[in-house]
């Protein structure tokens, strides 16, 4: 997930989840397993995940990954494969009986991060790894497709299995698929993201409404006037201008945004100068901005632009600003969320379903809401480093539960 920041979220809720687990750990021991569970390709699930993990590809370059996924899908009975974008795939499974149309999405791209897990199946690509878990997402959805493909005669309606490119890199791959026109009949979209520091195999229900943040980015070039360090009066110092801008931007959240409205303004880049005794002529700043409502998103953008304009003018500098609106916030549908909770509890037991806090990260899954309501959930993968960390790893025992939850949810939605 793009610049995902799940670690704090995990610490906040881990204690609650563990308590719930202790209270209900034996709840399902005497309940019979669903008959279709035998169709889950357990060994293939791990094989697929490890192959993809060893051969990661960054956003918009997932050529071998999509080829591998296509090979797997093409061998499944009753699944038609279509290509809505260069490196994205959709597997379409039409049930023997008429009914609704539902989609489940997995992202396939990796990150430009050197893996440091020491795993025997670690990435073979230098400075590229699945440090966010998209390999697990892809493998789980392949297993879900394989399971349901064997149940075609019992299936009502149609299932779209979306294997999406480029979630990590704006403008993202979801918008390409949405605009392809291949999803016009879909009535609901579901997605799942693996999350460390929650018990392996536990499904987290994200909030109704805003389930993630919108992310905007700005790149700012401050144009000053270079001078000798001993003669500052002859120059316009872009570092001083930049420092004033950074300080002023800290008031956007504290003094402009309504209290309680989740907003983050982070200046992640500030670069200028090459020598200790030279006043540079330029400074570069870059920032990430997170909001959850359209109103606040517009308000923050306006205020940021006003601050930059006024401060540069006050110091006699000029500027070049590129303000980029990227992914909107995921808006989870209340009714779909309730269905996710019910289905996950039915197949896994209530003790393995928990209320997850809103993600402070951003996700281009939000774009599917342009077509139909959406619901995004999480899957616990055990203790470990956060997503986007070089040491990120997945407890593979969790993946079976992820597949169970996906299959049960799809069946319940279509049978509703």
UniProtKB/TrEMBL annotation:
Keywords: Hydrolase, Manganese, Metal-binding, Signal. The keyword Metal-binding applies. Residues 218-314 form the Peptidase M20 dimerisation domain. It comes from the Bacteria. Coiled coil: none annotated. Gene3D superfamilies: 3.30.70.360, Zn peptidases (3.40.630.10). GO terms for molecular function: metal ion binding; N-acetyldiaminopimelate deacetylase activity. The keyword Signal applies. GO terms for biological process: diaminopimelate biosynthetic process. InterPro entries: Amidohydrolase, Bact_exopeptidase_dim_dom, Peptidase_M20, Peptidase_M20_dimer. Residues 1-19 form the signal peptide. Mn(2+) binds at residues 132, 134, 168, 193, 388. Its cofactor is Mn(2+). The Mn(2+) ion enhances activity. This is Amidohydrolase. It comes from Pontibacter lucknowensis. The lineage of its organism: Bacteria, Pseudomonadati, Bacteroidota, Cytophagia, Cytophagales.
């Amino acid at each position: 997930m793009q610049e995902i920041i799940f670690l704090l979220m995990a610490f906040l809720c881990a204690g609650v989840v563990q308590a719930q687990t202790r209270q209900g750990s034996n709840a399902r021991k005497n309940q019979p397993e669903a008959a279709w569970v035998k169709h889950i390709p357990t060994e293939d699930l791990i094989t697929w995940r490890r192959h993809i993990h060893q051969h990661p590809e960054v956003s918009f370059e997932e050529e071998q990954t999509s080829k591998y996924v296509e090979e797997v899908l093409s061998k499944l009975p009753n699944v038609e494969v279509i290509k809505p974008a260069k490196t994205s795939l959709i597997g379409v499974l039409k049930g023997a009986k008429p009914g609704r149309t539902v989609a489940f999405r997995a992202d396939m791209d990796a990150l430009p991060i050197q893996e440091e897990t020491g795993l025997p199946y670690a990435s073979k690509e230098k400075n590229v790894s699945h440090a966010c878990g998209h390999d697990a997402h892809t493998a789980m959805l392949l297993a879900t497709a394989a399971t349901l493909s064997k149940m075609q005669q019992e299936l009502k309606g149609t299932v779209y299995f979306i294997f999406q490119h480029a979630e990590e890199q704006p403008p993202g791959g979801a918008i390409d698929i949405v605009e392809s026109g291949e999803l016009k009949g879909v009535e609901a979209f579901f997605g799942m993201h693996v999350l460390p520091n929650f018990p392996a195999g536990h499904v987290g229900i994200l909030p109704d409404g805003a389930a993630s943040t919108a992310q905007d980015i700005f790149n700012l070039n401050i144009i000053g006037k270079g001078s000798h360090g001993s003669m500052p009066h002859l120059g316009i110092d872009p570092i001083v201008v930049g420092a004033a801008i950074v300080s002023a931007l800290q008031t956007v959240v504290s003094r402009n945004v309504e209290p309680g409205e989740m907003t983050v303004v982070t200046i992640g880049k500030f670069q200028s100068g090459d020598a200790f005794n030279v006043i540079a002529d330029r400074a570069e700043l870059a920032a990430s901005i997170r909001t959850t409502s359209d109103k606040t998103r517009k308000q923050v953008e306006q205020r940021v632009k006003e601050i930059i304009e006024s401060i540069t003018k006050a110091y006699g500098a000029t500027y070049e600003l590129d303000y980029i609106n990227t992914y909107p916030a995921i808006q989870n549908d209340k009714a779909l969320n309730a269905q996710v909770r019910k289905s996950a509890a039915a197949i896994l037991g209530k003790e393995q379903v928990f209320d997850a806090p809103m993600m402070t990260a951003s996700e281009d899954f939000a774009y599917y809401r342009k077509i139909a309501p959406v619901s995004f959930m999480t899957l616990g993968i055990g203790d470990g480093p956060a997503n986007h960390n070089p040491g990120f790893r997945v407890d593979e025992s969790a993946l079976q539960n992820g597949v169970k939850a996906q299959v049960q949810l799809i069946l319940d939605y279509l049978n509703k």
